[in-house]
Amino acid sequence: MHFASDNWAGAHPKIAENLSRHASGFASAYGTSTLDKALEQTFNEIFEREVAVFFVGTGTAANSLAQASIARPGGVTLAHRGAHIIEDEGGAPEFLTGARLQAVDGPIGRMNIDNLEAAVKGFRSGDVHAGRPMGVSITQSTEIGTLYELGEIAAVAALCRKNGLPLHMDGARFANALVSLGCSPADMTWRQGVDILSFGGTKNGCWCAEALVFMDPAKAQDMPFIRKRSAQLFSKSRFIAAQFEAYFAGGLWLDLARHANAMAARLANHITASSSLRLAWQPRANEVFAILAEETAAALHANNAIFYDWKPPHSERHLVGTNETLIRLVTSYATSAEEIDRFGRLIA
Amino acid sequence: MHFASDNWAGAHPKIAENLSRHASGFASAYGTSTLDKALEQTFNEIFEREVAVFFVGTGTAANSLAQASIARPGGVTLAHRGAHIIEDEGGAPEFLTGARLQAVDGPIGRMNIDNLEAAVKGFRSGDVHAGRPMGVSITQSTEIGTLYELGEIAAVAALCRKNGLPLHMDGARFANALVSLGCSPADMTWRQGVDILSFGGTKNGCWCAEALVFMDPAKAQDMPFIRKRSAQLFSKSRFIAAQFEAYFAGGLWLDLARHANAMAARLANHITASSSLRLAWQPRANEVFAILAEETAAALHANNAIFYDWKPPHSERHLVGTNETLIRLVTSYATSAEEIDRFGRLIA
Amino acid sequence: MHFASDNWAGAHPKIAENLSRHASGFASAYGTSTLDKALEQTFNEIFEREVAVFFVGTGTAANSLAQASIARPGGVTLAHRGAHIIEDEGGAPEFLTGARLQAVDGPIGRMNIDNLEAAVKGFRSGDVHAGRPMGVSITQSTEIGTLYELGEIAAVAALCRKNGLPLHMDGARFANALVSLGCSPADMTWRQGVDILSFGGTKNGCWCAEALVFMDPAKAQDMPFIRKRSAQLFSKSRFIAAQFEAYFAGGLWLDLARHANAMAARLANHITASSSLRLAWQPRANEVFAILAEETAAALHANNAIFYDWKPPHSERHLVGTNETLIRLVTSYATSAEEIDRFGRLIA
Amino acid sequence: MHFASDNWAGAHPKIAENLSRHASGFASAYGTSTLDKALEQTFNEIFEREVAVFFVGTGTAANSLAQASIARPGGVTLAHRGAHIIEDEGGAPEFLTGARLQAVDGPIGRMNIDNLEAAVKGFRSGDVHAGRPMGVSITQSTEIGTLYELGEIAAVAALCRKNGLPLHMDGARFANALVSLGCSPADMTWRQGVDILSFGGTKNGCWCAEALVFMDPAKAQDMPFIRKRSAQLFSKSRFIAAQFEAYFAGGLWLDLARHANAMAARLANHITASSSLRLAWQPRANEVFAILAEETAAALHANNAIFYDWKPPHSERHLVGTNETLIRLVTSYATSAEEIDRFGRLIA
């Protein structure tokens, strides 16, 4: 029962097959091949507009280079306190930009819009001591398996526009959010006002396929140099393109995300039905958080359920009682209903 | 006739197959999987000692993080004027370290040992204005297809030891150099005094497999953090491990390099036999440099020979006459004898 | 009535005079002059041990270079949420180190020791995603005019020692804290376990005289290079040395701090006696914080009282009621009793 | 006989006096005081246009922040091989920008315009591997006491304009160059096409007064944040303003530079008359370079002549024979004719 992370899964067979299919033959390097160019066109189609796409190797890179593209001296990006770019990138966004991140609070993994507005207003124009805001970053789906509704994204974007701040979306689990909301990529991004997207493929069935997508190509003019100096320009870049080709073909990416989400919902049902666990909050994508007695968690571990105990988010730490623990259960394209039901029997 | 670069080839079938073989199943992420650990052991065996290995995504990353591991305030790394870290990394080594690089001249792609010694001695102890040396970097095989002999590596290493400087080897084409010299990996590295190696697999048949190898694991204690903050820690790291597994199995890597080198030698023979081209210098690995009339180069291009005109190295610029050009022809595991001979007929 | 900041004052006449006295004559540059060396010796005497001293130009530089001296990849320094290095350096500590700062809460400007311990323990060994602690920084006197007692410094230091973390003290108002506690420089620093001190002279009567003091010179070996690459090595460094010479001569620095503190106490007395203002917390050095109606603050401004309205510290924001404001009143060596009493009459 | 450097002198009495004059009284901090603003106006007058002025503490800072203001990802600034920003800033320009410097050769301390053009053309548009030019920097007067004629500056500027590159002038010895050419500050800068100037006052009689001058204020919008994050924003900034006030009053700065240059010319005359030394090249400002037998240099040192043996510039290294040495003799506002003549008698 593998619920540790969606990055514990490997690669979907169709993605592995496509890599094999493209293994032979010569192609120009550094993102200039026919396949690379074809996939750039696919991104245009998926987003229903001409976008600028940059393949990179890791989600950390996508998020950090997004920040680098908007960095300015004294700059500060605002993000949720529990955001990956604040808590889990090993300082890469700061190291690769020289800029700072500032935490904004809000329940269930999302910035409260009033807190965000207060944070933006907290910077006085020209105050070099405090610095100045340079952007806002949201995560969709969030670190804790929740979602921003489209209207909420639009509200954040409106605040950004008003203050001249670009809006970045960390979409490490973009597909999971998309199928959960049942909207289009364009709807979840630029139609609401998102400027830059970290488009993640790795957690949803690729080996290593991340893309930085600029909704306005004019804003990406420095990116080729930013990517190179950050050691993220791959010579045989088509190996990323080939993954994305299979990922998008026939809507595979959406099918994989739907499966992962369905498995999460099935898991949530088991938890709701159990008297020994309770859902910490309603899962909206492929991550389920539950609260249970520490000894119950230990017993589950002992019965080969693999998952992480999770540090309670700042806004939700009151939910976890004494001798209780919060656990995170992540599903993926590779999760089977059988696994879920085995876990269900264990907690019944 | 593809001679543009060894990174225009794709991935060897055995490497693609192995990726498919490892695509299913769950494995812990971020370099902690059983396969990752097994490959670390393989590196120990290949280098006949316990080494510290860090998988990264690009050669730029391997070289830059090697520099980061030895960086110190005011530090300067000495390398050949034509070295990749000086000319072709888009400033990544400087950007990711805050340190500087200083060019040392020498014929056919190798630092002259006297020039290197003079450069080291040029730094006076404690002179904060000029800075201080922090390391030396050599490329094996060099940017222009030549080699340092083992004794020459030892001489550079002796100078390094005497001055307390770590010695880095950029081994983007490590295997090509190895089979050319006919020695062991240990012989070409730590037995001569190399401390840190950028071990490249990509150019020799992998999709994307680079490793940073520290001969003394004690010198690599900061590397996990350096790698993460530089966005080079891959979640599904086993996709790199799987490539290396196939790469090393049955000595595939050496076979591929031998093939590439043999194709280069075959190409050199054609050039020697031709009256319209001449070898710029003797090729020792899988890169052949030739000098020819500009119009001849144009004619070759027109006949579907794909290669780059090359800026003559500083020390060899006198070799190229008026109306002549220097061209680079690179062979790889995927080059066929038929291609070579077709080119041979073209220049006969 | 100038209470905006102690950096609105100029330079004490004795300091200006000493600069004039040293204006003539030749002296070797970049911190090597006889006067520079003599002042280094004075620092040894003042701290009752051999220390390593580095003159720099600004408090931002002292604090940032202190961080640079302890920086390591993935590193995070812990400081109070309201600390100058977190809120008021324009990102310089992060920019000049590549490392991060993490806020720790605590009442009246001081880190709560339990919060600090929890923050340190929050980092799991080897967790590259979260990074690792690299140091702790305290401010003495604090940003809001309070103090760490000697025993409290010792407690922070003990926690640091236990976790292998160097302890930095931001002493922009070192002298004010010192005379308030009535202890020696050694008592307030290394005897309690402080490793690195930003020793500020500027706010207490110098033009521009800041020093970075390493209690263990062996820990300062990289500092000459760190200072130079950060553009903080002054050619005519003796102009800083000359300021410090006069600053220390006859205990001037302590006299100036005693005066500033006495003026603050006198001001606090006026506020206590007034019915229209109340002390936000007890002042311990040369900064007085008061809470009053917004309209009262406006009236004071209109009567030529110069001070800043202050953003309430996170832990004290509940103290300020609706339609109230928090104000900061800073005294200095140049503040006169007459000014204080004029303000006193205004609020009576 | 002090010829080691112009930064071995102290401060001119009038500058020290003015500091004393401004020592009392309160003034707003961080460059906002009346005096600061008045001096900004003075700079406008001196440059005959509205400029943006930023006071900083060191020449290293002025040069590095100039680079930071024009930095872009992958960027490279071109400067003479012997330029201070390349050889003598301890890596500060690279550290504070993340960008690189590239050396251009040329005789007697000045870039050869053809070499410069070749260097610019050496960057192919969009080549992320090599990076891209981001600016050009010239030094006036040069590191070795020579000058760019106005027409030569204009030629460099024309090349810059044509290639969209800002032109920076390192004016650590700006005044010395100015009085030597006998032109106005506007003539030597923006009228020829200089965009950014490091205006040095320290070497010419100030304690510590450097200014970064942007000929087009619109290009300086990020500078307040760049200066702060680089720890170069001085709280009691008026101590720099006060130096500049005295420096400019009654043309003192020009008088001091004329004196220093005259002393250099007098020294050159002695050398020309001597049979034991020869001028390395014709001095144009306040630095005289001479070639002499090593034993003669030793004898001069033994007779209390203080100067540095100098590493021969790359383009002039052929001038220095076996057993000979190149020496640098620097004069300043504080050099006396008596000192010069004493040296003259020594070498007669």
TrEMBL record, chains A, B, C, D:
UniProt KW keywords: Lyase, Pyridoxal phosphate
InterPro entries per UniProt: ArAA_b-elim_lyase/Thr_aldolase, Low_specificity_L-TA_bact, PyrdxlP-dep_Trfase, PyrdxlP-dep_Trfase_major, PyrdxlP-dep_Trfase_small
Known catalytic reactions: L-threonine = acetaldehyde + glycine; L-allo-threonine = acetaldehyde + glycine
BP GO terms, sorted: L-threonine catabolic process
Entry's Gene Ontology molecular function annotations: L-allo-threonine aldolase activity
Lyase among keywords: yes
E.C. number(s) listed in UniProt: 4.1.2.48
Entry cofactors: pyridoxal 5'-phosphate
Record domain Aromatic amino acid beta-eliminating lyase/threonine aldolase: where: 3-292
Keyword Lyase attached: yes
Source organism superkingdom: Bacteria
Family classification: Belongs to the threonine aldolase family.
Function: Catalyzes the cleavage of L-allo-threonine and L-threonine to glycine and acetaldehyde.
Subunit-level organization: Homotetramer.
Protein name: L-threonine aldolase
Organism name: Phyllobacterium sophorae
